What does this fold into?
Amino acid sequence: MMKNRTFTENDYNNSRTDYPIKLFIPQCDFENLSSKLATYDWKNLIYLTKFNGAEYMFESLFTVIINNINFFKVLKKLKPNNYPKKKNKMWYTDNLRKMKEKLLFLSDLIKGNHNQNVSLRDRYNELKYQYKKSIKEAKLASNVNYIEQSSNKCKSAWHIIKNNNVQVNNFKTNIDPDTFNNYFVNSVNEVKRNIESSVNNVQSHELLPAIVSNQYFSWKNITPENVLKAIKKMKNSDSLDFYDMSNNLLKKIALSLVNPLATCINQLLKEGVFPRQLKVYICPI
It folds into this structure.
């Protein structure tokens, strides 16, 4: 039997500690969430929203999904990692260590000779160049090996990039996705208006070779099987998106959603609408 886990002020006060708090849905409740979504009257939802446009239909469907996910969320205390981060020195080989020791030895010899021995100084500079080059090669080989052995190569690559990037201050922009998209769409019309062509549209069309195509485009509706197949092809991952949904969670609840999703996707494609809820993303860096 599923019980309501609506949070009260007492729950929040009892959970307050020096540790940060996060809401999440346990994997043991994935099946309960799927069952709850399966019992929802999706046909009635589609019927009530189909006359208000595809975007409203998707928003209503998406709201039901998110509300049900929030129903099963629990509080989790995140303990901070108080251990100092150790730099990864797996790439530092014995050969590099010996080269460094030799560099220090040559440096001491040069200082003892008051930098007068030219051959020692040349040898030191040559070894220093080789040492720096070997470090770069060792780091590169270590990074390649780290990525190749990882089950999620893309995530491992981003991890390396993030650790080697200089920290910069992020800034937010007030430009919404629609404004950004419309700017580039309208820029094409602006360019067309500014072009002065000596050949009108009719003449341009007459200059083109006449091509008779034997291929015809036919529209086919998306089926629930298509939606389920696409979801199953997603990579197994517990990484959360902006709405605290993961690939693994979506796979668990897929059978409860494929029918309304297929109907909604067909309506979105028919009207040429991309829902605003899917225009939100989390930057990986």
The two ends are 41 Å apart (CA to CA).
